[in-house]
């Protein structure tokens, strides 16, 4: 008897109708998600301090008439995602020495959804490339941006940063807990993201929450909308640019702090030095980011059960 073989399940992209359902199954929650008991997703504990960072202080330099007029011109001419990224987002982010990459799919990271959702591919991500690492890909990233042309959908961009921010939160949480016997959760946001579409800039914070029932379950990955700027008038445009640039700098501050602390812990852990010749930053960082892995939390939860449907090819 010939047993028919099931076709391999195709991963869902953010434009597919089942994307959010799959995210929720793996405890990756969209903005304003509500539980069956009508409870909203928790907001990060440090949300007020983050909101303060986004506000210009007296004496801070803000952009003027020329920058706003330039933005109006390039925003009006935008016809594709690539154009928006090069000209509009390039204008919004300004000149900076922050290490970044564009349009890189995260194929070298363990899937957070058992392969049911396509690996993230942010239009822009900021990160740390430690010294002595011969890999051009960023090893730790905690800021993501998705931008759309005039035919893009804000709902798709929000879904994309929801997933990307979860990956970034897992990286930062792994660094934060490197060398500890069991993971700790402080409910603070150390990962951030932004979307831009047709003149509207949205800023989000991401944080990890402890498993609700017991330690053999997945932690929850939450995204919180912080601010939205309709960049159609000069004062709002100036405030939005200030907030976005401050956001990226704040994310860099957390990255550098977490890397420094984790590297110091690594230097004091004999097990990382045993059997290794010349130690490299890549070796240390890969070990940091491989824990705590998803398997640490997997149990008999519905999150670990695969779906039986198949989806169209991802975007």
Structure description:
Residues 269-286, 305-315 have a biased composition (Basic and acidic residues). This protein has 315 residues and is an alpha/beta fold. The protein has one domain. Helices cover 34% and strands 15% of the residues. It has seven helices and seven strands, in the order αβαααβββαβββαα. Helix 5 links the parallel strand 4 and strand 5. The longest helix is centred in the last third of the chain and has 34 residues, at 234-267. The chain is globular.
Short description:
The chain is built from seven helices and seven strands. The chain has 315 residues and is α/β, with parallel strands linked by helices.
Tally of extended strands? 7
The Cα radius of gyration reads: 20 Å
User: Into which percent range does the helicity of residues fall?
Assistant: 25-40%
Any low-confidence stretches, pLDDT <50, length ≥5? 1-8, 130-135, 275-285, 290-315
Q: Which band does the percent of strand residues land in?
A: 15-25%
Question: Oligomeric form of this entry?
Answer: single chain
Cross-sheet strand order for the largest sheet: 1-7-6-5-4-3-2
Figure out the total of helices. Answer: 7
Q: Please indicate the count of domains.
A: 1
Assign an overall shape: globular
Structural class: alpha/beta
Q: Please, what is the average pLDDT?
A: 81
């Amino acid at each position: 008897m010939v047993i028919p073989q099931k076709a391999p399940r195709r991963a869902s992209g953010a434009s597919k109708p089942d994307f959010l359902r799959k995210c929720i199954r793996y405890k990756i929650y969209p903005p304003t998600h509500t539980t069956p008991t009508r409870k909203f997703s928790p907001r990060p504990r440090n949300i007020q301090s983050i909101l303060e960072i986004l506000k210009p202080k007296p004496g801070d330099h803000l952009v003027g008439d020329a920058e706003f007029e330039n933005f109006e011109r390039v925003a009006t001419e935008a016809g594709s995602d690539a154009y928006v990224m090069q000209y509009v987002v390039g204008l919004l982010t300004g000149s900076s020495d922050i290490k970044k990459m564009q349009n890189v799919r995260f194929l070298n990271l363990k899937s957070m959804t058992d392969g049911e959702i396509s690996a993230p591919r942010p239009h822009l991500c900021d990160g740390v490339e430690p010294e002595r690492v011969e890999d051009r890909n960023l090893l730790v990233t905690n800021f993501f941006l998705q931008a759309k042309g005039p035919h893009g959908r804000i709902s798709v961009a929000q879904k994309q940063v929801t997933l990307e921010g979860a990956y970034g939160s897992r990286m930062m949480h792994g660094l934060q807990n490197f060398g500890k016997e069991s993971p700790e959760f402080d409910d603070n946001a150390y990962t951030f993201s932004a979307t831009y579409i047709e003149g509207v800039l949205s800023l989000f914070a991401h944080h990890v929450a402890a498993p609700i029932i017991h330690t053999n379950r997945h932690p929850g990955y939450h995204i919180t909308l912080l601010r939205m700027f309709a960049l159609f008038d000069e004062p709002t445009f100036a405030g939005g640019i200030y907030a976005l640039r401050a956001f990226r700098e704040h994310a860099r501050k957390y990255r550098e702090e977490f890397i420094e602390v984790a590297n110091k812990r690594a230097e004091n852990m004999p097990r990382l030095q045993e059997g290794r010749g010349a130690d490299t930053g890549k070796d240390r960082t890969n070990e940091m980011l491989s824990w705590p892995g998803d398997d640490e939390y997997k149990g008999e939860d519905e999150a670990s059960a695969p779906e039986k449907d198949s989806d169209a090819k991802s975007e």
